[in-house]
Amino acid sequence: MFKSTGKMIAGVLLGAGLTMVASQANAETLRLLTWGGYAPDKVVQMFKAETGIDVEVTNSNNEEMISKLRATGGAGFDLAQPSQDRVAGAQSEFDIYKPIDLSKIDATKIIPSMLEGTKKNTTVNGSAYGVPHVWGTSLLAVNTAMAPDVKDYLDLCDPKYTGKISYRLKRPILMAFAFSMGMDPFAAYNDKAKYQDILNKVEAKLIECKPIVKAYWSGADALIALMSSGEVVAAKAWDGTGWKLTAAKPEIKTMAPTSGALGWIDTFVLPKKTQNEAAAYKWINFVMRPEVAAMIVEAAGNFTAAVDGDKFVEEGARKRFQDTFPPEAIDNIKWYPPVPTGLEEMEGKVLDRVQAAK
Amino acid sequence: MRMQSATRLALFLLLAPIVLWLALLVILPHVDMFMVSMRERVGIRQYEYSFANYVEFFVEPLYWRTFARTAIMSIIATVMTLLIGFPVSYYIAKMLRGRMKNFLFLLCLVPFWVSELVRTFGWMILLRESGVISNLMQWMGLVSGPVEMLYNDATIMVGFIYTSMLFMVVPLVSTLDSLDDSLVEAGYDLGGNAFTVLRTIIIPHAMPGIVSGCIVVFMLTLGNYLTPVLLGGKDSLWFTEQIYTQFITRFNWEQGAAFGFLLLGLSSLIVWAGLRLSRQTLSQTMG
Q: The whole model's pTM is what?
């Protein structure tokens, strides 16, 4: 029933859309679904100059990318960039991606361990769906002048900072608190009962901590406003955002918490109904060039999986990276494993209850 | 005979766009959405028909509490908008003439030249702890430290009233405009005081405007997403937010669709009850 209504609506929309498509068809375009900063204007212009292909950039996040592609069955975009832990689950549940042809990618330009790891984590039924692009972590941004003793996620619950704490109420905070409380949620991924038990403990803690929180931030801009005005003295943040704050205000330190930063890798995947696969591969190979990768590092604030991508990065950014991540902190990064289906629903209910708690 | 069939054809052609619009873009998607709300995910890519999504709403206190909170706050926002909007509209419609009238009317419109997002951010700049009002109060010596005025229910309310004021003022001004001044004068001549004149002449005359204004404001508030999320902060809890979360971050379209239908039912019910209480009919207020 819904299939046929869906088709009818699609037909009508198609009719209306055809006129628009017709006018665009002469110039080749690549419709890229990505994160803010991953496709800076300068890089898009260079790509156009070299290949003649226009890149239409749509900024988004993991959940929206999956929802958008799910709504169209994988149409509307030629290349998308979800995080590696969110590819396999979405693929097996909604069938929205197309296996990637690794022979069309210049593997020598990608750091081998990351390429291998991403390939492994995004494999469904024997085919790999993703190649790595930008990687980063979420950790702590701390105003050391005003909150000198924040060292781990649980310190965000210290009552002396009441009204001066912020974090994002999404699944990373659940993982962060679990690790900080001495539990390993990743090890419990395949044991739902145990995972629920961890979630329950984290939920109780987050509700207990709620009065201390000033606001749950929702985007990097909101966090930057909160921290640079001094309204918030410690927050769980993305490292790229943290480094932007450090660059502007040196007393704000971006630090890996003692229980470990949480690491993610954003990938390139082909939506199932991509219309310009050739351009997608061209774009992937283009942004993996070290000098282009450096420009993306500058815009996004995060490092890429390109070999030698950090060679061309300005000195300040490299210094900030090394301050945050001494070698032992890098070894302590907890990389997100692929999320099995069903867990997100359990997490969702916990997040809802925390949001509703008084 | 031929004449008649020609007119019928013309009528049909004239109606076709609106019928197609309604059928394809309003009714069909709703039917589709209803079907989605009636299925339950039992496994990967496996679905079954059931009421589970609706049952979930009633067994999980969080959802219906959010729902009740949304409805009650929307009603309060509507009443407050009416209380503030009515004197304003009366002043514009009855006390002013000529250019001044147009000017004030225009002032009500000005905030709507920018998008809702920008307006909400404007409020955030004013009200935040390091914001304009907080700094002004410290400078005047009224308070000793910064004051946080964002992230509470009162702020959400301010945001709602601000965003919906125009939709209350416009219908009120147009109904009050049509009230003959001599009726008001007659009321006073017959010995009525300001209150009796208001109660027996002005309000009954303005009733269709009041009701249509209230319906529009109520629906806008109930379906608002930006204002509660941005101004409400960690305690916002708005039902539209819940629907958004189900659809976008949980990938749970089934639950989101069920919530959507519950919201549709609730808002229709409250509007119906409001019309009943005010003894108006929809055709009177909209006509």
A: 0.79
- Report residue A34 as tokens: 């990505």
Establish if A312 touches chain B: CB-CB under 8 angstroms: no
Interchain contact, B32 vs A213, CB within 8 Å: no
Domain assignments of chain B as residue spans, ordered by start: 47-286
CATH of the structural domain A136-263+335-356, one choice from 1.10.287.3510, 3.40.190.10, 3.40.50.1390, 3.40.50.2300: 3.40.190.10
**With an 8 Å Cβ cutoff, are B44 and A341 in contact?**
yes
Q: Is the per-residue pLDDT at A1 higher than 50?
A: no
Pick the CATH number of A2-135+264-327 from 3.40.190.10, 3.30.750.24, 3.40.50.620, 3.30.565.10: 3.40.190.10
Residue A15: the pLDDT is 52
CATH superfamily entry for domain B47-286: MetI-like (1.10.3720.10)
Q: Model confidence over A281-293: pLDDT tens digits? A: 999 999 999 989 9
The interface predicted TM-score of the complex, written ipTM, equals: 0.74
User: Does B148 sit within 8 Å of A216, measured CB to CB?
Assistant: no
- Give φ, ψ of A72 to 5 degrees: -110, 5
CB neighbours of B119 closer than 8 A, spacing ≥ 6? B111, B162, B163
Domain ranges of chain A: 2-135+264-327, 136-263+335-356
Q: For testing the chain B interface, which of A2, A171, A221 should be mutated: the one with the most B CBs within 10 Å? A: A2
Which pLDDT band holds residue B287 (cuts at 50, 70, 90)?
A: low
Q: Which residue in A63, A92, A163 is closest to B249 by CB distance?
A: A63
Taking the C-alpha atoms of residue A79 and residue A86, their distance in angstroms, rounded to an integer, is 15
Nearest residue, CB atoms, B250 vs list A12, A344, A353: A344
A199-215 per-position pLDDT tens digit: 999 999 999 999 999 98
Beta bridge pairs of residue A134: A304
With a CB cutoff of 8 Å and minimum separation 6, the contacts of B134 are B127, B128, B143, B146, B147, B148, B149
Chain B residues close to A353, C-beta within 8 Å: 62
- Cβ separation B24–A353 shorter than 8 A: no
Give the rounded percent of residues in chain B with a pLDDT score beyond 90.
32
Closest C-alpha among B176, B175, B161 to residue B81? B161
Q: What angle do CA A326, A332, A336 make, to 5 degrees?
A: 125
B interface with A, Cβ–Cβ < 8 A, is 24-25, 28-29, 31-32, 35-36, 44-45, 60, 62, 65-66, 128-130, 148, 150-151, 229, 233-235, 237, 242, 245, 247-252
Residues of B in contact with A230 (CB under 8 A): 130
The reported pLDDT for the residue numbered A23 is 45
